[in-house]
Every structure is written in structure tokens, then in C-alpha cells.
Amino acid sequence: MIITKESKIIPYRHNVPTREEFESLHIPKRYNNLREDITSLEGAFYHMKFPSPKSMINELIGSYLSKKIGLDTVDYQIGLIGNYFIALSKVFYEEGYQYLSAKSYLLEKGRNSYLAASSIFGCLKTRNLKLFQGELVFDDILKLIAIDLKMGQSDRHGENIQIKIDRLGTISLAPIYDYGCSYMQNNDNIHYQNYASPFILVRRNPYYLGRLFRSYPKLWEYIQFLKSVSMEEILRDIECEKVITFEDSEKDYYRKKQSEIEEVLDKVKMI
Question: What is the mean pLDDT of residues 159-182?
């Protein structure tokens, strides 16, 4: 990634919020240890991540695809510390809402096993139990699965999805984050939470994707829509939006990886 003077880079100054400021962000207690990973810039508070260059690009692509398909997402900005990239995303917690990870939400309801609740598929399995009210939330979950399949994402465990609950108990998905382990990076370094990540399951057993399509026809539509978005279009639009330039080697890498992922997904056509 080539940075120029015109690039939209947030100037990095690490201003750790005071305890009072941090509490005003309404971040769930289980995330209290993140205070050192939050900085204030120009009157707003941001989460900081220190990804590798490819993970940084993955985050930008994931955010782009989410917006493309109409899914609420964090909007990653690029920061720079010396020669190191940082990914900055505005804190999205709002007063008056409760935020839980999907895993915590499902386990709290006592409707799923620990392993099932650790995956995005734990959300699908709750539809008949009416834990997710309304088609809108369920539709967003299908969009998220389609994005993870498009990107070869291997880290969509139950802590990487957050549920937003208002005072009436109505739920929605909080903005989506954490797209870093995508494009078949770290797919073979699987820990227990990853066993039910969409792309890992499909790569191991293409029949699984066929069953998903039969159970959730809308998922097929979303995957076909995302397949129509070429890697050239994705990288070009991100370059334009962020005022950055991807090197030819980076473009070649992502074209190659997208082709490999689509080979895996296309196997379902032969079943």
C-alpha cells in the first residue's frame, strides 16, 4: 500500500481516555481491558488495531463489501506510526443499548451448546426458537455469511459478532468488524472457535454449502451478488475512497486468492 501526502491518513496521537471518558463510551464490562487500545482524535474515540499490511487491506475490503451489500459495518480509517499501519474505527457503542457478543447472547438464553454458540451458525440455528426477532436480523446474518464466504474468512467466531439490544428487547446486529483473517490467511491455524467458520466448513466439505443453499435460498442470491463484484472494482474503489495506491504485487495476490476461493465455492455446482 502506497501512502502519499494526499492520502486520507488519520494523524496518530495516542490519547488514552480517562476512566470517566471510557465509562461514558458504554463499552461492555468484558471489554474494559481495551482502554489502552482506544484513542481520542478530533473529538471522537477510536478502537486501534495493529494489523499486518495484508490484514489491513482485508479490513478495508470487508468494510467495503459490507457497505456494498447494505450491512452496517465499522468504517476503518488508516493511521500511521512511523512505517507501521494502524486500523482505526470509531467506537460504536450507544447509551441506552446493551451490547453482547453473539456467543454470550446465545449462551445467556440457554438454547445452544458452547460450541454452537461459538460460531455464526449458532445464530442460524436459533431462528426457529425465535431468539432473533424479525427477518431483518436474520437477513443480515445471511449477508455476513456471504461476505465471509466471498473473502475466505476464517475467524467469524461468536465473539466477532455483536448483538445490539434496545430497552424493549428488540435486537439488531451491531456494526460488523474483524475481517483480518481473510483470503485464506491462517485458515490452517484453526482453534476450537473456528471449527464452524463458513469458509472452513465449505472448504472441507462442499456438500455443506449445498445444504446451506437449500435451507436458505437468500444466501445464494447474496453470494451471486458479491461474486459479481470483481477484485479490480473493489481495489479500485478503495484506492479512490482512501486516496491510497495498491502495489501491483498486492493486486496480483488478491486476484489470485479470490480465484482460489471461487474455485472452492464453485464446487457446489457439481454436487
Answer: 88
